[in-house]
């Protein structure tokens, strides 16, 4: 569902991403990890079509994001780490705007919106202007609006930003359930416990290179980390890669 082939991005002499090859199949919950400056944000911007790569390609459900952007983006949902809204709209109006963008059938807009607002506890704020909403409510609205057109591929950067424990649990449960139902999810996060809890596979980037890839069990076996938590494995791998460089 997500195919990255030799994905490369240079900013002048800075090599932000170096020949990234990655296949994420349907229904997999994949977590991108890495220290600041590792290349995660660059990879996501290339994957979602926000930037053009220096080399390589991205395919979403078989559609090249550069050559066939409308088809690729029609099956893609993306929640950035800082979501942007039309501040004067209400959540309900914003959902209608998103529905129009993705040509959601008119008869489906209201029931989908109602279900998502109930799921993410937004219905109480549906008539307020977005500019007056708390950070956590805005984050939940960003996730709900991105799920409105029922994308096949869902990309989210730092999903738990601003969420209290109750709503964080709701988001985790919903994303995991959708992954198990067939949605492909790519999550970038600095919260290693979230990645360990949710991800089917984990990829660790450092200096634009994929230095590790696998399930938690595979990472433990490869890096002799039996019994270790992801945080310990992550720190060991990054330290090892830094020493090698």
Instruction: Tell me the CATH architecture of the largest domain.
Output: 3-Layer(aba) Sandwich
CATH class of the largest domain: Alpha Beta
Shape: globular
Give helix % range.
25-40%
Number of helices: 9
E-strand count: 10
User: What's the CATH H-level superfamily name of the largest domain?
Assistant: P-loop containing nucleotide triphosphate hydrolases
Structure, explained:
- Strands 6-7-8-3-9-10 form a six-stranded mixed sheet, sandwiched between helices. Strands 2-1-4-5 form a four-stranded antiparallel sheet.
- Helix 3 runs parallel beside helix 5 (135-147).
- With 245 residues, the protein is of the alpha/beta class.
- It has nine helices and ten strands.
- It folds into two domains: 1-75 and 158-245, Rossmann fold, CATH 3.40.50.300; 86-150, no CATH class.
Feature tags:
single chain, 245 residues, alpha/beta, Rossmann fold, 6-stranded mixed beta sheet, 9 helices, globular
Short description:
With 245 residues, the protein is an alpha/beta fold.
Task: Present the secondary structure layout.
Elements: E1 2-11, E2 14-24, E3 29-33, H1 40-47, E4 55-60, E5 63-64, H2 69-74, E6 76-79, H3 91-101, H4 106-119, H5 135-147, E7 153-157, H6 165-180, E8 184-188, H7 192-198, E9 201-206, E10 209-214, H8 216-222, H9 230-244
Parallel strand pairs: 3-8, 3-9, 6-7, 7-8
Antiparallel strand pairs: 1-2, 1-4, 4-5, 9-10
Helix pairs in contact: 3-5
């Amino acid at each position: 569902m997500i195919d990255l082939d030799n994905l490369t991005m240079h900013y002048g002499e800075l090599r932000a991403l170096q020949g990234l090859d990655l296949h994420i199949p349907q229904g997999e919950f994949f977590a991108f990890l890495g220290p600041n400056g590792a290349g995660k944000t660059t990879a996501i911007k290339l994957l979602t079509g926000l930037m053009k790569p220096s080399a390589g390609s991205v395919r979403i459900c078989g559609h090249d994001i550069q050559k066939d952007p409308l088809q690729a983006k029609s099956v893609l949902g993306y929640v950035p780490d800082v979501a942007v809204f039309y501040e004067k709209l209400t959540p309900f109006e914003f959902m209608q705007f998103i529905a129009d963008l993705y040509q959601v059938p008119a008869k489906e807009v209201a029931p989908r919106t109602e279900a998502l607002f109930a799921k993410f506890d937004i219905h109480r704020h549906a008539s307020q202007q977005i500019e007056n909403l708390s950070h956590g409510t805005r984050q939940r609205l960003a996730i709900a609006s991105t799920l409105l057109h029922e994308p096949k591929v869902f990309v989210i950067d730092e999903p738990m930003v601003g969420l209290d424990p109750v709503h964080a649990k709701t988001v985790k449960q919903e994303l995991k359930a959708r992954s198990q139902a067939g949605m492909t999810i790519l999550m970038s996060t600095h919260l290693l416990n979230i990645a360990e809890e949710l991800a089917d596979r984990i990829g660790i980037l450092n200096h634009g290179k994929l230095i590790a890839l696998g399930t938690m069990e595979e990472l433990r076996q490869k890096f002799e980390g039996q019994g270790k938590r992801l945080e310990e494995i992550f720190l060991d791998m990054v330290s090892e890669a830094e020493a090698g460089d």
